[in-house]
Specification:
Layout lengths: L1 H6 L5 E6 L3 H11 L3 E6 L2 H10 L4 E7 L7 H10 L8 E5 L2 H9 L4 E4 L5 H25 L9 H14 L5 E8 L2 H8 L1 H22 L2 E6 L2 E7 L4 H16 L6 E6 L8 H13 L9 E3 L2 H22 L3 E10 L6 E13 L3 E3 L1 H11 L2 H23 L5 E4 L2 H4 L4 H11 L7 E6 H4 L3 H13 L4 E6 L6 H4 L6 E4 L2 H4 L5 H17 L3 E4 L4 H9 L4 E3 L9 H13 L1
Parallel strand pairs: 1-2, 1-3, 3-4, 4-5, 9-10, 12-14, 14-15, 15-16, 16-17, 17-18, 18-19
Antiparallel strand pairs: 6-8, 6-9, 7-8, 11-12, 11-19, 12-13
Length: about 575
């Protein structure tokens, strides 16, 4: 809205009168100078210089059509072709009917006939043209994103619906474009660089829709919606556009992801099409192998399935459809492996879908925050099971439970864990807490403070999936942990790959330096067990001993242990 504000500065709006006849200029100026600040030019070239110099303050141009050097028609064409200058309204001076029509076609707002009408009529025409132009600028600024110049989301959907209504037979594709990890761009390089990226991509998108037809908007901080006539060459063209974006920005570390909903004749409304394109785009959030994907039936079915799981979660908790399984851990430092603890793992026995994979519902619940409800359910079930084994079998078997990142940031975490432990008459060290390595790198100081507080209360904390995250050696020396649990990918090829073996040896050396035990998960064969024991691993977990089992099956392993 800078232009509008500029034109309204001061007491009077500014008007430029362009006419090669001095008497004509003076007569018109005398009619208007009581209400407006009037300036003059005697030909089109001079007028163009004045307009460019005062484009932020000019409210109106009044010009004669027949002038030397640059006539009124040519000046109108120049103004119309310029994105900024076209916002300044122009009234033409003419006595020819044919000229009136041509002037209006070239973008003139109105005309004043020669010889001049009474001053009141001229003032009314001038006032009306200025007010209409100012209203148009307000609408223009409201409907456009100030940074990129693209439509705002609300106007985009409105104009999109109009486009559909007037072109019922036209096939249109919905496209959503996001910038990967844009929040880090602002944090690392500053907001001005982030704005530069958004503006550059906005300009590229604007050029695309101008060439191909359609509409585009900035729908969110780093998200754009593009509505284009249907085409079949996305697989060929999108990588080229992504390359062009990176080249214009000058930074190939900035990458985009694009979700496409091709028009399939399904009759979905505009919002539904873009919802599906957005879903396709979200599937590329952590992908760096491709910049685009298409929405398809498989995605649609998965979306419906995910929505069912989310909607069914509360009922599943109430009906105890979630079952806690336990995978035993064995201490291998002695002559024979000894059952030392177990890990609690969740399973969902859905009344309709049967056994639902944790890989389906855990990432889903992590994304929308429902994981907290599930974690607390597991904590209570696991604590009650530890108590049950004590009462029935006279055995204390510590159990480790997962503590997600969202749990760590919960100010009530400590009191919730203490309440669970106390309610089951357990010692804190019998209730082990697993925190993934990646969580330690996310606001590490708060994680450290929380874990330190829990350890002071007597809880033992294991770093889960060690080796899969980004913690530095320097960082490790300051992390409060009681055990390192190796990511299972390092165990898979340990017997056949010397590099994998050396990596595990290094991680065990780090654990020795930190004076904490090492837990290896994913151990499936005796060769892996023997090798891990040889290089100094302390505790083993995996299918070699047992898959995750319901508590009644673990009873048998506990009884076998007692019978040794």
């Amino acid at each position: 809205m800078q232009e509008l504000l500029g034109r309204q500065k001061g007491l009077f709006r500014q008007i430029l009168i362009v006419d090669d006849e001095p008497i004509e200029r003076e007569m018109l100026g005398n009619m208007l100078d009581k209400e407006y600040e009037v300036c003059y030019a005697e030909n089109g070239e001079q007028a163009l210089d004045v307009i460019r110099d005062h484009k932020l303050t000019l409210s109106l141009v009044i010009l004669d059509l027949h002038m030397p050097k640059l006539d009124g028609y040519s000046l109108l064409e120049i103004l119309r072709a310029d994105a900024e200058l076209r916002l300044i309204p122009a009234i033409v001076l003419t006595s020819e009917k044919e000229a009136e029509v041509k002037s209006l076609q070239l973008g003139a707002a109105d005309f004043i006939t020669k010889p001049y009408d009474v001053p009141e009529v001229i003032n009314a025409r001038v006032r009306r043209s200025i007010e209409l132009a100012e209203d148009s600028i307000i609408i223009h600024e409201t409907e456009r994103d100030s940074l990129t110049g693209l439509f705002n989301k609300e106007f985009f959907y409105e104009y999109g619906r109009r486009l559909e209504n007037h072109n019922e037979d036209m096939s249109m594709d919905a496209i959503v474009l996001d910038i990967n990890r844009f929040h880090l761009v602002n944090e690392l390089y500053g907001r001005s660089y982030g704005d530069f990226i958004l503006k550059t991509i906005g300009e590229s998108i604007h050029g695309l829709v101008q060439r191909t037809g359609g509409l585009a908007c900035r729908s969110d901080t780093n998200s754009f919606c593009i509505y284009l006539p249907h085409r079949e060459d996305y697989e060929e063209q999108l990588p080229l556009h992504a390359e062009k974006f990176a080249r214009r920005i000058g930074d190939y570390k900035i990458s985009i992801r694009v979700g496409i909903f091709p028009d399939d004749g399904s009759g979905l409304d505009l919002e539904q099409r873009f919802d599906r394109a957005r879903l396709a785009c979200s599937k590329l959030r952590n992908s760096y192998t491709t910049c685009y994907t298409f929405y398809n039936t498989k995605l649609h079915d998965k979306e419906l399935y995910s929505e069912r799981l989310i909607n069914d979660m509360d009922r599943a908790l109430e009906e105890k459809q979630f079952k806690v399984y336990y995978q035993p851990k064995y201490n291998i430092r002695g002559e024979k492996p000894v059952l030392s603890s177990a890990e609690a793992l969740i399973r969902w026995v859905h009344p309709e879908f049967g056994m639902v994979s944790p890989g389906d519902f855990i990432p889903l619940f992590e994304d929308n925050g429902l994981i907290q409800k599930l974690d607390r359910y597991v904590w209570r079930e696991a604590a009650a099971q530890i108590r049950d084994w004590k009462n029935r079998l006279g055995v204390t078997l510590p159990v480790s439970v997962n503590v997600s990142r969202v749990d760590i940031f919960d100010p009530m975490l400590e009191s919730i864990l203490e309440e669970i432990v106390n309610a089951n008459v357990l010692k804190p060290e019998e209730f082990l807490l697993e925190v993934t390595e990646s969580a330690y790198t996310d606001n590490s100081q708060q994680i450290i403070d929380t874990v330190n507080s829990l350890r002071r209360k007597g809880f033992k904390v294991e770093m889960d999936d060690f080796g899969s995250g980004y913690s530095s050696l320097n960082m490790l020396t300051s992390l409060p942990i009681d055990a390192l649990k190796l990511d299972m990918k390092f165990i898979r090829n340990i017997c056949s790959d010397s590099k994998e073996r050396r990596m595990v040896e290094i991680m065990i050396e780090i654990a020795d330096f930190l004076e904490v035990p090492v837990i290896a998960e994913g151990v499936e064969v005796k060769e892996q067990l023997d090798l891990l024991k040889e290089i100094g691993c302390d505790i083993i977990q995996g299918y070699y001993f047992s898959k995750p089992v319901p508590p009644e099956d673990l009873d048998k392993l506990i009884e076998q242990e007692d019978g040794k």
